[in-house]
Structure formats: structure tokens, C-alpha cells
Inverse folding.
């Protein structure tokens, strides 16, 4: 069974989410605070984490940051729950490494749909790949093992960051609009906005680029979108 950890200090919400996910065949582990969540996540290694932004003690943002900083948990997908409609809070969550967000109150059907979308995205990172490896200017991607290195140092990416990098590397030199990136990386049933694309690109750059102000891999094409560098060695 696919294992999902739900972290929220509101027991009613945790029970509601767990009940509906269990009906869909998932194994759900319930946690009610951030510090405990980190211990459970490290020991149980779930397929996905549903994480509330506002937790007592350690916030969801801080939990997310710790998850992404730990190589053993860095690639676990995260859906952030937030009671705040302010886009700033959502963007901060994405910048810390969340793959998606949903605002309370939410539709349980929508949450389950997003869970399936995120899990499918994590599994589909190798779709349409016609070669095993990619190398360019110190960046190395092993498509078979889904590992990324920069100058021989292994880089931990979230599932969304990995799929975004693979997409760009499969099409070097080709410019894509944000809508095209959404369609190819997130799919037609995406709930992500164009601004969130920029956040994920920025976070990906922070992981692989030496100088984010002068990127050599993921290039901004002003007024249009993004592309991977033209020249491939």
C-alpha cells in the first residue's frame, strides 16, 4: 500500500483526510505536530506528505525546509495545507520545496485528486526519455536512477524539480512559455499557477546553478518563458 503521512494539529481535519484516503486504498499515518512529523517521516519514508502550514511549535514551512535539506527525505512529494488565502504564503511554501498547496476549507475530492496527480508526477519523471544519461557543463542527469550531480556532487531535488529539470534537458535550446511548461510538467489537471512555475524554476536554479543571477543551465527568455542552454557538449 502507498504510504501517506498527514500532519495537522486539527484532529478533525486529519481524521477526515485519513478516512477518505484510506477509502482510496492508501495507508495513512496521522501526526499532529512538526517535531514529531520529522521523526515519523525519517523513519517511515512515506510516498507523500500532506503538511499543514500553521502547526504549533515548529511551523509547516520549517518542517518542509528540514525535509528538503535531508538527503534521505528530500525527494518525498509535499502538499501544503493552508488556512491563508494570501498568495504570499503559498509562494513561500513552494519556495521551501512544497510541490503543491491547497487552501482550507477544501474539497476532499479535490485533495484526493491532487494526491493522485502528485504521485503520478513522481512516478512519471522518466516518461518519453530516449537515453539513459545527460551531461552538460558539469551537470549530469542519470535518467534511469533519477539522480542529478553538479561537478560530481549529488543534488537532492523534489519530484517536481526533478521532472522540471528532465523536461528542460530533453529539449535543449527550445524556448517554452509558462503555459507549455505547466502542460508538460504538471499536466492538464494541474492546479498550479504560472507564478508558481517561476517559483519552481527559481528553486531549481538554487540547487544546480553556481550563480543564480547568471544561470548557465536554465535560461530566462524575457517576455516568453524559459529554455535549457543551447550548446550541448
Amino acid at each position: 500500500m502507498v504510504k501517506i503521512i498527514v500532519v495537522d494539529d486539527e484532529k478533525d481535519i486529519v481524521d477526515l483526510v485519513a478516512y477518505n484516503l484510506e477509502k482510496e486504498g492508501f495507508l495513512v499515518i496521522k501526526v499532529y505536530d512538526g517535531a514529531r512529523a520529522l521523526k515519523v517521516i525519517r523513519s517511515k519514508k512515506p510516498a507523500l506528505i500532506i503538511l499543514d502550514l500553521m502547526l504549533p511549535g515548529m511551523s509547516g514551512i520549517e518542517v518542509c525546509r528540514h525535509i528538503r535539506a535531508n538527503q534521505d527525505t528530500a525527494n518525498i512529494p509535499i502538499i501544503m495545507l493552508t488556512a491563508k488565502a494570501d498568495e504570499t504564503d503559498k509562494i513561500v511554501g513552494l519556495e521551501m520545496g512544497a510541490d503543491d498547496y491547497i487552501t482550507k476549507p477544501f474539497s476532499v475530492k479535490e485533495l484526493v485528486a491532487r494526491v493522485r496527480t502528485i504521485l503520478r508526477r513522481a512516478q512519471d519523471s522518466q516518461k518519453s526519455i530516449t537515453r539513459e544519461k545527460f551531461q552538460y557543463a558539469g551537470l549530469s542527469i542519470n535518467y534511469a536512477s533519477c539522480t542529478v550531480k553538479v561537478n560530481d556532487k549529488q543534488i537532492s531535488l523534489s519530484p517536481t524539480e526533478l521532472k522540471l529539470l528532465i523536461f528542460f534537458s530533453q529539449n535543449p535550446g527550445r524556448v517554452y512559455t509558462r503555459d507549455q511548461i505547466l502542460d508538460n510538467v504538471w499536466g492538464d489537471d494541474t492546479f498550479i499557477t504560472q507564478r508558481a512555475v517561476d517559483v519552481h524554476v527559481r528553486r531549481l536554479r538554487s540547487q544546480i546553478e553556481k550563480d543564480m543571477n547568471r544561470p548557465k543551465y536554465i535560461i530566462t527568455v524575457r517576455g516568453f518563458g524559459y529554455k535549457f542552454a543551447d550548446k550541448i557538449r
User: Anything to note?
Assistant: Residues 108-123 form the longest helix (16 residues). The mean pLDDT is 87. The radius of gyration is 18 Å. The domain at 133-228 is CATH 1.10.10.10 (Arc Repressor Mutant, subunit A).
